Amino acid sequence: MTVINQHEKMSIFKIWMLAARPKTLPAAAMPVIVGTGIAFGDRAFSLGPALAALVGALLIQIGTNLANDVFDFKKGTDTKERTGPVRVTQAGLLTPGQVMTGMWVVFGLAVLVGLYLIAVGGWPILLIGLLSILSGIAYTGGPYPLGYNGLGDVFVFIFFGPVAVCGTYYVQAGTVNPAGYWAALPVGFLVTAILVVNNLRDIETDRKAGKKTLAVRLGVRSTQMEYLLLLAMAYAAPLVMWLAGIAALRIMIVWFSLPLAVPLIKDIFTKKGSPLNETLAGTARLGFIYGLLFSLGYIIDKINY
Known about the structure:
305 residues; mainly alpha; Farnesyl Diphosphate Synthase; 75% helix
């Protein structure tokens, strides 16, 4: 197989790094950064829970990536026609059994981190942790895989937005304030936008494989409009927060990231297939910068208050 020949000299470490897909990790880190930023601004920051939330989020993301790698292969979705990054199971770099084992090891590590967070935050964190791991597996695995039935966008928004942001704030403050709930919305919108690019890129191969993502169900044009709407709502959220008195004008510094969004929107309407890999990376970068600016704006406001 050509793919194997191209990677046959890779070390086992590099192969596992490829499987972990580190370029997806900023999407997992962004909700924790924003939740921690809100907690810091509210003088509720706690280093231990914040770091544990970050490590736990990264581990769950890696575990989900491994689950997607092996379950997509088993379902026949990953083929030679794939336009996204190399999947190690499909490429023959690791066996399905190895990837499955790796998945359970990573999720097991996430559970260990979660035990500390449960001690800090109680049963709500136990529920959040279990549901996060289950959704990571159920995205492509199980009898009714979410990603194969058009529910991926909804669950990504829920778990990367309200669950991750509010959960991060909660383990530090013991409660969640209105700013935390509002901050969760743009984070969820932007991480969902990353998934929209991914599914738009794969729309033809997913359709052939019977993977009925929301993009497959909606079609190209409506998926492009979904991306535009998600970005628009992400940038509208801080404006509403300011107008409603939930945050001060300084929260609007997130709009300094708007120039990064313009070329991405152009790409969505002009590119298809593998060229959208650059757009996907750009959307992840946009979300990370947005999260940093959002947190900074909130913190500066509270420091000056």
